[in-house]
Each structure stands twice: as C-alpha cells, then as structure tokens.
Amino acid sequence: MLDGERLVVFGSASLLASFPELGAKGGSPLLNTYDADIIPYPFEEEVGLMLDESFGEDRKFHQKFGYHADIVRPRVTETFPLGWEDRLVALADQKSVFCLDPHDMAAAKCLIGREKDSSQIRYLLENKYLERELLGQRVSEIALSSELVEKAIRFFKLITS
Questions:
Q1: Could you give the C-alpha distances from 118 to 24, 113, 125, 126, in angstroms and in order?
Q2: Integer-rounded Cα radius of gyration of the chain
Q3: What are 120-141's pLDDT values in tens digits?
C-alpha cells in the first residue's frame, strides 16, 4: 500500500480519521493533543528536515496555530502490529494521507506504556471505540522481542482489568 508519495499519521491524532467526533469538545481524550506524528513516504532525510522546520514543535506554524507535526522515520513502524499497512484508514478528502487503524494505534501505545496512554485507551474501550479482544490480539501481533511484547501485554492487562 505504501508505494508512491504518502503521509501516514499515527499516534493519538490518527484516531480522527476513524472517529472525527473525538476532535469535538467534551470528554474527548484528544482535547490535549496538539501534535500529529507523521511518516512521509518515501522518506528522505532532507524532506523530513524541511517538514520539521516548517511544521515542527516551536516553529512558526506551531507558534501561530498552536499545534505541530512530529516528523518520524519509517523505522517506528516496527512497533506496529503485523498487517498494519493493510488496515490503514484514508483521511477524508485526502488522496495520499492515511492514518493508523485505532486498534493498531492503541497496541503501539501499549508497547510504550505511558500513564497518559492508559487513560486514553481506557476511555476508548469504555466508550466502545475499541474492542478489548481485538486490541489484545493486535498487541500480541507486534513483531518485536518477546520481552517487549510481554511488557505490552502486561500493560494491556493492567488497563483492561
């Protein structure tokens, strides 16, 4: 799927492609999300640096609009569950922007295991944006060392118990 020029959005902002209502005010877990994690394809170091200079944290765009982009190298996809490319969600009205499937995004967050991620995943599960069983399956499909995957599974069990 990733042949040609494309942008892949992952992290919390990727949820907006599947659930645009999470961008509305209220109890949304995205209210304090002011960045988008983006992988440009094909990745070229020079282009990544230019994008960071234009849209990165503390750049003019960020200062003016209050949000920014974190430009990330494709290696981060090693932390995504197997088959993630086949489940990318197209961003409405954008021909070359795709977002990580919500369960894939949450599985990658289980691998990181931060407190802010646990409250976000709990919110998504409690409000039926995520299915517990499918999330557990995706966590187990992360193709990293067994030690890291076990850490992600422990985090998943902690936040879903």
A1: 21, 7, 10, 12
A2: 16
A3: 999 999 999 999 999 999 999 9
